[in-house]
Amino acid sequence: MTSFQETLPDNFVRRTLVVVGVVTAVVLLVILAWQILSVLVLLFAGILFGVFLTGISGWIRQHTPLSHHLALAATLLFLVGLTAVAVALAAPNLVDQSQQLSGNVQQSLDNLETVLLNQPWAQPIQNFLPDFRQVSSWPGQLLSRVSGVFSRTFGLFLNAVVILFIGLYLAFEPDKYVNGFIKLLPQASRRRAGVVLDEVAYTLRWWLVGRFASMTVIGVLSVIGLLLLGIPLAFILGVVAGLLTFIPIIGPALALIPATLVAFTVSPQKALYVFLLYMGIQVLESYFITPIIQRKAVALPPVLLIMSQVVLGLFLGLTGIAVAAPFAALLLVLTKMLYVQDVLGDDSTKLLKEDPRPHFAAATNQTTADGRKEKQHAEQT
User: Is residue 359 scored above 70 in pLDDT?
Assistant: First the structure.
């Protein structure tokens, strides 16, 4: 009886320590997963940039006698030269119009406040809107937090540098990193891994082609439409519209806000015309431009796209929203190939690349080894 009473507290303490240890391990794993998630998103952005570089250099290599490294060097020279020309031609307008944009937006907010105050029907709306005087004080509040702004800007710059170097190293020796990853897998899975990675790279490459094509078309149409309507700061607003088109669904909605506010400084009618202009451009892009592009590029289900933006945006903010679409494309490919084809055995699933091949060395060597084994087995039987 005494021994049982003595062991009872010991069991309780032991179980308590086990529970505390498990809870502590779970908390540490959640914290680690949170940190790894941001790192993985940064790595994915770098891979996306590397796919972009290898796509251009691959096209150059196919149409010229240049080697991979020379084609990549030509790609980098072209991109640097294009950036320098764009900065030389557009930088003065961008800087000047960017400085005017904040003032015009503030003026538009003041005009909107005046209109709402004079309209009885707008009284319920005003109860849900922030005080315009508080809005006008936001720039001052932001300026008072220079250290915070500097740290965030430095963080964005550091992330951009990391993405740049990851993309450059991957583009310089893509097979080296892919083969290293494939060799970590069991030998029986290496050939299939090579096929999947080939399809993933092909899908991401054409997704980027589709996005850049849409960005260019929407940016040009926005500038032309705003100029025809006589809206000030048409150039910077068109650039913003083109850049935000990189983010499907959410990007065009964000681009509409500053354009409408700037047009409101001219007149409410102009703001309505700008709203209709942007809606017309989106209809044109959705029903005419995108279907043409997606004959070769990847088409993402809207529900999958929206859910990926919501989930990644919830955990990673704007960075997560920016990479949500290519991540959804990656997820779609993996689901089709690894689950629908391999697990369910449905080979009728249509892929973007009709005949993906395991052209990576680690996968092709495994294919050769499998062929030799089959040949030896046939000779023995």
Answer: no
